[in-house]
Amino acid sequence: MPCGREAEARAFYAGLLGMTELPKPAALAPRGGCWFASGSAVLHLGVEEPFSPARKAHPALLVEELDALEAALTAAGRACVRADGEIPGVRRFHAHDPFGNRVEFQQADQ
């Protein structure tokens, strides 16, 4: 993530996605960035200068209510791209965080 944009990270990952922010260890806190968790998933956003978003490599997060999450992201102005049918038994879509990083959301097909 870019330097100094932790508030945007918190608004997206904690506010919109409902993840819990984890405190960074005191030795790492001065470097900036944010850590988040949800269930067994832990996501570390580190500061990079110069910053270049991850547009291909990305985390895939398992969710329980894929359609509700897609609706919430769309309502918040985040474009979602459906990618159904490419992985048997999995419904999924991609969106981008405030910094242009790709994030995938998956749910088992029922």
TrEMBL record:
Domain spans labelled VOC: 1-108
Protein known as: Glyoxalase
Annotated organism of origin: Trebonia kvetii
